[in-house]
Amino acid sequence: MGSATTPARAATVHDAPDPGRPVIEIAAARTHYATPAGPLPVLDGVDLAVRPGEVVAVVGPSGCGKTTLLRVLQGLAPLDSGEVAVHGAAPGGAAETGYVFQQPSLFPWWNVRRNIEFGLKLRARGRRTSAAERRAQADRLLEIVGLTGFHDFRPAALSGGMQQRVNLARALAIDPAVLLLDEPFSAVDTLTRERLQRVLSRTLHALGTAAVIVTHDIREAVFLGDRVAVMSERPGRIVATFTVDHPRPRTEDFQHGEQLAAIAARVYRHLKDGDERAHAEQAAPAADAPHPEKRRAR
Amino acid sequence: MPASALTRSMPTGRRLRRLAVPPLSIAAGLALWQAAISVFHPNKLAVVGPWEIARDARRLFANGTLGADIRLSLVQLLCGLAIAVVAGTAAGVLLGASRWVAGAVGPWVTVLYTIPVIAVAPLVIVALGFGDAAKITIVVAAAFFPIAISTQAGAAAVTEGGLRDVTRAFRANSLETLWYLTLPGTAPHILTGVRLAIGRALIALVAADLFGSTSGLGYLIISGQQNLETSDVYVGVVTLSVIGLVLTGLVGYAERRITAARTARAGA
Ligand SMILES: Nc1ncnc2c1ncn2[C@@H]1O[C@H](COP(=O)(O)OP(=O)(O)O)[C@@H](O)[C@H]1O
Ligand SMILES: [Mg+2]
């Protein structure tokens, strides 16, 4: 598995702790779904490598295979061919990956704290933690995601945005090497979504966790990612990668600034043209003129 | 506005009045019944009034037979229900978790569910004798199916729902998935099954006593019939109804508590 190649277009990443061995590598990945109408190819030669602490955002049209890509990385879906490795081993092995679902998917019968402790309680991987350790870890994460004081609440008593923060805390509680997020904020309103994006950026920075975040929201991708990978229509492959040269954690200024708008406009143009020959494109670090007519498209 | 919020915001006076309705209704019914007896004087072998039933109940209680009958029937009922809950939950979870099992065993469940317990009770007694084992077996046979069928529906919903992806993503093994997801997720369905099973179990218990017994509430009813002690029959029937009401009420309460805790929008 260690033979997976790093795509040559990976550019230097701002702020990455160690530009050494990738935590996640996937190369020439191909897979399909069996449907009544025959096999439906979904991934068609996907290459991606994520270094420790790096955040890669993947954008692509709906149905192109983004969720499938995350499921492969999590070890929930098999590959027809190609290589995938987490910390050099097959996914689903010893290396932990945290998964944040599109819908909050909390256990309705547990309060917030017990939901966050869930991953720590599982003995399946031989990791044993004491009740006090679990509690301390849950409280630490509640503080990080800004929910201190809500540990006793049941999920039904929380807003959608708060539930999604718990979801994030639950995935982070097991100290994963990589966090995989599947359109995590698509079900919340715009203001909440922008606040959650800042919470996520701060949290990943504070914990130094690498992440692959899948989204169809280009501005979200640019805001969160050290790099933005663009996927083609199904069967998906990564057709371009943009580097977002801005320090993390990122703030509201960046969220609504011209740099983000300019990069988002370039990503958008690329997505729209669907230019498969395009490869790594270094986004201009600053003041490109924003393209107001294109910004609408996110 | 959800119903629970309505209940909460209801003024105390109105809530008290609503709670008072069921007992008042029962009291009014008993009064009407007693009045009708005094006016029409029906055949005492067919109908007796609440006053006479109460007097007979006091007599039976004082000489110790009613207490012994209740104790024996409750033990048989609760043992049978306990076994049926364990077996029915296990069967329901298996049926709900695997389409293969559902396909292979599901038809058998449907067929066996429709067999009247009264038809097989004599066979069970022939096989197991007149003791507790036969009675408990008959109660289990009656209570098992509603629990298994209700649990199956719940387990299937949990197994195919989004939370299954969560346990998979966290790499829970099958025992952990059962313990942390399937059982808590199915708990309301299990309780619904138990609530439906209580009535069937009570009927089965009387049926079991019918085919040979020397004690128990079913025996009280049957010997009352044979000895033309009609008020004994009524005492047995009323006692069974009260047991059924109390048990069903307790299980229904647990059911509502569980559901409310999972869906309440306000507070912890
Ligand atoms: N279990 C499945 N069976 C058959 N087809 C599927 C299944 N899951 C997804 N697909 C199809 O595969 C394609 C990619 O799905 P997905 O990875 O969920 O896309 P995305 O997350 O990018 O919207 C879609 O066309 C979808 O309809
Ligand atoms: Mg998706």
Automatic annotation (TrEMBL), chain A:
Keyword Phosphoprotein: no
PROSITE patterns (alphabetical): ABC_TRANSPORTER_1 (PS00211), ABC_TRANSPORTER_2 (PS50893)
Transmembrane segment boundaries: none
Single GO molecular function: ATP binding
The name this protein goes by in its record: NitT/TauT family transport system ATP-binding protein/sulfonate transport system ATP-binding protein
Entry keywords, A to Z: ATP-binding, Nucleotide-binding, Transport
Keyword Nucleotide-binding tagged: yes
InterPro entries, sorted: AAA+_ATPase, ABC_transporter-like_ATP-bd, ABC_transporter-like_CS, ABC_transporter_ATP-bind, P-loop_NTPase
Protein species of origin: Actinacidiphila guanduensis
Domain ABC transporter: 26-258
Disordered: region residues: 1-20, 274-298
TrEMBL record, chain B:
Signal peptide: none
Localization per Swiss-Prot or TrEMBL: Cell membrane
Residue span, ABC transmembrane type-1 domain: 70-251
Keywords, ordered alphabetically: Cell membrane, Membrane, Transmembrane, Transmembrane helix, Transport
Keyword Ribonucleoprotein: no
CDD domains in UniProt: TM_PBP2 (cd06261)
Membrane protein topology class: Multi-pass membrane protein
GO cellular component term, pick one: plasma membrane
InterPro entries recorded: MetI-like, MetI-like_sf
UniProt cross-references to Pfam families, sorted A to Z: BPD_transp_1 (PF00528)
Residues passing through the membrane, by range: 21-41, 74-96, 108-130, 136-158, 201-222, 234-254
GO terms for biological process, alphabetical: transmembrane transport
SUPFAM superfamilies, alphabetized: MetI-like
PANTHER family with a match to the protein in the record: ABC TRANSPORTER PERMEASE PROTEIN, ALKANE SULFONATE ABC TRANSPORTER-RELATED, MEMBRANE SUBUNIT
The family this protein is said to belong to: Belongs to the binding-protein-dependent transport system permease family.
Protein name listed in UniProt: NitT/TauT family transport system permease protein/sulfonate transport system permease protein
Organism: Actinacidiphila guanduensis
